[in-house]
């Protein structure tokens, strides 16, 4: 279960199976409620399976675990992993639930601020002010403040210089973790809408920035693309480096820094449909 | 109520806040949790003034999942209204054809305004939707004022603030309405669309005349969530007058006939409406009908296959036994 996309494939396959099974009892009378509920229940079960086998944010692991994820004769990936090894030593995985970019970003950034109180204070000021920006943009204050508060609580936790384990367990508490994801999604959406004149050109399908945000940014489990990363990096004034590893030829991984020319503190590994955290 | 719930639970925290936010009825909506259950609310909404629901006040239940606001609320109407089935869940959630669109930053108020916004849209045979004639809807709107909820003791006559001629929606309302437009409603219920309450509606002599339907869209237009659309598209009143093709009051029609007629009228308006509506709230109903047909075919095929297998099984078993006896 390496990527969100793979998860989707499994999902579709399982749903097809399930539908075949569940269509038997329907002979009695086409019951769409049962049909929809079966799909929902099935999706929940698959989510549960993914949840059971992947923590929201894993412990830090040796990068060698990646090698074992791919077959030895899979030369494209094995070469690229070797290339990755030149720059990085460790990886921390995130659950492939469609929220992986936000979770990886949130954790990696706060972790990097644990021993840098100057940067932490700077970040805290940006984060504190961000709610007001959203409210001024038209977000309803009482619906977003719980998410903001949870985010600020975590930043305040970091001020107390907790153990890494403490931060990790906060990020593995589904309530806390999901609220942080929601807030990061709101920040992304807010920034995209504030700078709609610029981002409008990058949105496909003739949608407005606002529509894009409501379909692809704010709902949970919607995967992230370049445009999301640029927006969040700029909204929080944090530089992010993403290493892209895919089936493309060449034997090396390509990286991209958001925003361009920044001095990145966070390193993410992208494999189609999924983000993990990398460490030097 | 404060002592009964874990205040650390995100859902409880949020619902307490929403209860405070919605404590006082507005002119258009009101909702509060039941006294003994923070996760079940009752609401009242006013029918959009420039529609067949004008003058109606409708009551219903909202059921919140424990994961709220990460998961959407379910909405169930209790007042017969001719647009949504009574007692069936309308959920703002997923359907096979629409992605999950609920956003955690939405609220119960968003859902209420979405209901108001959805009342004048077409049911088009979607599950849980009803396409009653304008006459029936107007009769039900009139009757809705008599409704009294037994479990929350709410009377529709007093549930909401009286409309004032110059009611001015607050900026929040405006924003919530915009949000409401994004929701794709997915009604969740059994397939039976036979409206159980239609008997009452049919026998109710309609005192309204055709002309009533084209009442002023004037000052009250703002309160309808589609007001923004109306500003861009040609005058909203264009959509309002129902074509005279509507069934004559004296002749009761079967729900099927009525639906067919409704569809005809709506067909004519389709183009215009589709153009003025955002692409993703375009009526989700057509594909659903297709999928019903598809699954019906699948079921028939599977049943036949099953029957064939069973028959073969029995046949083989018999043959085997026969051989054995020889």
From TrEMBL, chain A:
Q: Which catalytic reaction applies to this protein?
A: Thiol-dependent hydrolysis of ester, thioester, amide, peptide and isopeptide bonds formed by the C-terminal Gly of ubiquitin (a 76-residue protein attached to proteins as an intracellular targeting signal)
Q: Which GO terms describe its molecular function?
A: cysteine-type deubiquitinase activity; ubiquitin binding
Pfam families xrefs: Peptidase_C65
Tell whether Hydrolase is among the UniProt keywords.
Answer: yes
Which segments constitute the OTU domain?
89-280
| EC number annotated for this UniProt entry | 3.4.19.12
Which keywords fit this entry according to its UniProt record?
Answer: Hydrolase, Protease, Thiol protease, Ubl conjugation pathway
The site (Interacts with free ubiquitin) lies at: 230, 244, 246, 270, 275
Biological processes per GO annotation = negative regulation of double-strand break repair; protein K48-linked deubiquitination; proteolysis
What sort of enzyme, by top EC class, is this?
hydrolase
Q: Which GO terms describe its cellular component?
A: nucleus
Q: Can the keyword Protease be found in this entry's annotation? A: yes
Where's the active site on this chain?
Answer: 97, 100 (nucleophile), 274
PANTHER family, A to Z:
UBIQUITIN THIOESTERASE, UBIQUITIN THIOLESTERASE PROTEIN OTUB
Which family does the record assign? Belongs to the peptidase C65 family.
**What is the name attached to this protein's record?**
Ubiquitin thioesterase
Organism field: Scomber scombrus (Atlantic mackerel)
TrEMBL record, chain B:
Q: Which UniProt keywords apply?
A: ATP-binding, Endoplasmic reticulum, Membrane, Nucleotide-binding, Phosphoprotein, Transferase, Transmembrane, Transmembrane helix, Ubl conjugation, Ubl conjugation pathway
Transmembrane ranges, per UniProt, are 293-311
Q: Sorted alphabetically, which CDD domains does this protein's record hold?
A: UBCc_UBE2J
Q: Which stretches does UniProt call biased (Low complexity)? A: 195-206
GO MF terms here are: ATP binding; transferase activity
Chain residue ranges for the region called Disordered = 187-273
Q: Which GO terms describe its cellular component?
A: endoplasmic reticulum membrane
SMART domains membership: UBCc
**Database matches in Gene3D superfamilies:** Ubiquitin Conjugating Enzyme
Q: Indicate whether ATP-binding appears among the record's keywords.
A: yes
According to its UniProt record, where is this protein mainly located? Answer: endoplasmic reticulum
- Taxonomic superkingdom: Eukaryota
Q: Which Pfam families match?
A: UQ_con
Task: Classify the protein's membrane topology as the record does.
Answer: Single-pass type IV membrane protein
Ranges of biased composition (kind: Polar residues): 207-218
Q: Where is the composition biased (Acidic residues)?
A: 221-231
Sum up the protein's function in the record's words: Catalyzes the covalent attachment of ubiquitin to other proteins. Functions in the selective degradation of misfolded membrane proteins from the endoplasmic reticulum (ERAD) and is essential for cells to recover from ER stress. Plays a role in MAPKAPK2-dependent translational control of TNF-alpha synthesis. Also acts as a platform for perinuclear positioning of the endosomal system by mediating ubiquitination of SQSTM1 through interaction with the E3 ubiquitin-protein ligase RNF26. Plays a role in male fecundity through the interaction with the E3 ubiquitin-protein ligase RNF133.
Q: How does it assemble?
A: Component of the HRD1 complex, which comprises at least SYNV1/HRD1, DERL1/2, FAM8A1, HERPUD1/HERP, OS9, SEL1L and UBE2J1. Interacts with E3 ligase RNF26. Interacts with E3 ligase RNF133.
- This chain belongs to the protein called Ubiquitin-conjugating enzyme E2 J1
